[in-house]
Write a structure and sequence with these properties.
Length: 375
């Protein structure tokens, strides 16, 4: 059977977005491909309330030559140079950094450094702080001056390891991660993940994953969320460094080859339909079940609520096989107190949603329901 190819490859799928920065761009990319998006920022970037600490760190960098400068994020590096310009230190800071060995943590930090007219000496392929630290610890550090631009959270262990080797470490705090202004969207996304009402959740930073799992802990849903991410909900991270908190929790997320939003969306396009799409034939009709949508021949997609889509997927696992009301209740209404009347009501609503194709769902008297279709 020739595959039904929707014009929008992610139609029928509901995808959670936890990003704070560039969220609008990621949401637009997903919606352009037909996905329904649940926006739930896990964190927000907060400039320091008092920039006196950043100014003191900048002035300390200018008191003597720097030997090493560590740029950990693009947004942090740009923020530092912008603040230095505002204080009249921009040209001097650039000159001090130009005379130092500049290390960058990944392509975004590298791009920001180059955009500022500097060049990096080394950047780890893994984008990991541990790689940066290992590189530095392989050098003679006694008496050396090292500036470390932090990235949303203090790098206490990083700085302490350098100081133990005799380095003078200047911590450059540009911004901090903070909880979202409204925590309700994140809580709802956690609950939807636990109930398998979303098909994928995207993460663009490791702290966002930590905040997501912490919210699951607060709601008492950690085990349900992790079970969902292992089975029905696709976890997608922008890169391997971002993915680490999930891996430490026993989850293997999908990551694109390149740490870019477009590449992450292409990964979703490739992986999600492969694991959550089923093609069938009913008489002369071709059908595809994709997420919460039903594609029938060349007609418009039929969008279903999550509950009705779950009923249809259960019937489609073995087309033609009769599932009793009790069996459907066990498969679809997991962890609820629904009874068989809920199954009857859901099937009636499913038929109404299918419209002219309502006969796809057949009632077998005294036995249950089946899908009038074949693989």
């Amino acid at each position: 059977m020739t595959a039904l190819q929707p014009s929008s490859p992610l139609v029928g799928y509901t995808i959670g977005v936890t990003a704070a920065r560039r969220r609008e761009e990621l949401v637009a990319l997903l919606r352009r491909r037909g996905a329904r998006v649940v926006e739930a920022p896990a964190l927000r970037i907060m400039p320091l309330d008092d920039d006196a600490a950043l100014r003191r760190a900048t002035e300390l960098c200018l008191t003597a030559p720097l030997d090493y400068v560590v740029a950990t994020t693009g947004v942090g590096w740009r923020g530092w140079l912008s603040a230095a310009d505002g204080w009249g230190y921009g040209a001097r800071l650039a000159e001090v950094c130009r005379d130092a060995v500049v290390l960058t943590r990944g392509p975004k930090a590298t791009g920001a450094v180059r955009a500022g007219g500097l060049s990096e000496t080394w950047s780890p392929a893994t984008e990991a702080n541990e790689e940066l630290l290992g590189w530095l610890l392989g050098r003679e550090l006694r008496g050396r001056r090292v500036a470390v631009q932090e990235h949303g959270a203090p790098l206490d262990e990083f700085s302490a390891a350098l100081r133990e080797r005799g380095a003078e470490v200047i911590v450059v705090p540009v911004y901090r991660w903070a909880p979202p202004e409204d925590p309700l969207p994140l809580r709802r996304l956690v609950e939807q993940t636990a109930r398998r009402e979303v098909h994928a959740v995207t993460f663009t930073s490791a702290p966002a994953i930590t905040a997501f799992l912490a919210t699951a802990d607060e709601l008492g849903l950690r085990e349900e969320v992790l079970a969902g991410l292992r089975t029905d909900v696709l976890p997608v991270c922008v890169g391997p460094v971002c993915a680490r908190p999930l891996e430490e929790a026993g989850i293997t997320p999908h990551c694109p080859d390149r740490g870019r939003l477009g590449a992450m969306v292409r990964t979703i396009e490739s992986v999600l339909p492969a694991r959550n799409r089923r093609e069938l034939r009913s008489g002369a009709n071709r059908l595809a079940l994709q997420g919460n949508a039903v594609l029938i021949d060349d007609g418009p997609p039929v969008q279903l609520p999550p509950l009705l889509a779950a009923v249809l997927r259960a019937l489609a696992e073995q087309p033609g096989r009769v599932l009793s009301r009790a069996e459907l209740l066990r498969r679809v209404w997991v962890g609820t107190h629904a009874d068989e009347h809920a199954v009857e009501a859901a099937v009636a609503r499913l038929r109404a949603a299918l419209g002219e194709h309502s006969r796809l769902v057949r009632t077998v008297p005294k036995r249950g329901y089946s899908l009038v279709a074949a693989l």
